[in-house]
Structure formats: structure tokens, C-alpha cells
Write a structure and sequence with these properties.
mainly alpha, 5 helices, rod-shaped
Length: 135
């Protein structure tokens, strides 16, 4: 590792300590990766990419030291619940559609099988044939 990389890591660790003790100097003090990056003076993507292990360490410390769930995790949990509900609704709608399609196919089959043979029985007066009879 180069000197700049080590410097960033030490600033991130110091920023973790300040945020977890409630003494931020250059961020809003929230327990998020964005606040950690701002507090450490590193670009957020540097924290996400080069120092992902420190970001995970930060979230682990948030859980253990503050007994809080990180905001990112809370948002993701809410999104998972919403998506599960949407999937459940979608599956129910699909099952209903399948059931209706089966009913329509059965009804069509019954109607086809019950169709009177034009030679055996004349069509009732209230039925209009779709095809004119061939002469």
C-alpha cells in the first residue's frame, strides 16, 4: 500500500471514532457512509471502492457500539418488505389470471361440444349464425 492509501485509512478510522462518540468536525454527524467519507475528507467512492472493508467495519461498530441499525440497512429492509409485498400481489394476480384463462378455455370447450349439429336440430330462433348456411 502506498502512503496516500494508508493516510486515507487512518483518516477514515479517526472519523469513525469521532462519529461514534458524537463529535463530528466536518460532517452532519449521521452514522452513514456518506457522513463517514465527509468526516474523513475522502471521496465517497474511495470509501465505497478502495476502503469497503472500513465501511463495513464502521457499520459493524454502529451496530455494536450504538445498538442501532444503520440507516442504509433500515432503508434496505423497508425496500425488501415492499418488494416482497409487491411480489405476493403479483403472484396472486397471476394465479387469478391463470384461473380465469382456464375457466374461459373450459367454457369454450363446453360450448363447442354442445353446438347442435345443423342437420340434426335447427338453430333456435334467437341464434344468429355467424356463417350463412351453404346451399
Amino acid at each position: 500500500m502506498n502512503h496516500q492509501h494508508e493516510d486515507e485509512r487512518s483518516r477514515i478510522r479517526a472519523a469513525m471514532d469521532r462519529l461514534l462518540t458524537g463529535q463530528p468536525t466536518s460532517s452532519n454527524g449521521s452514522l452513514t457512509a456518506a457522513a463517514l467519507a465527509a468526516e474523513a475528507g475522502v471521496h465517497r467512492m474511495a470509501l465505497q471502492k478502495r476502503h469497503a472493508d472500513l465501511k463495513e467495519e464502521f457499520y459493524a461498530r454502529v451496530r455494536t457500539e450504538t445498538h442501532q441499525t444503520p440507516e442504509v440497512e433500515k432503508r434496505l429492509r423497508k425496500e425488501v418488505v415492499r418488494l416482497k409485498e409487491a411480489l405476493k400481489d403479483s403472484r396472486a394476480a397471476e394465479a387469478e389470471s391463470r384461473h380465469r384463462a382456464e375457466q374461459m378455455a373450459l367454457a369454450a370447450a363446453v360450448l363447442i361440444l354442445r353446438q347442435p349439429d345443423s342437420q340434426d336440430q335447427p338453430a333456435p330462433d334467437n341464434v344468429i349464425p355467424l356463417r350463412p348456411p351453404t346451399d
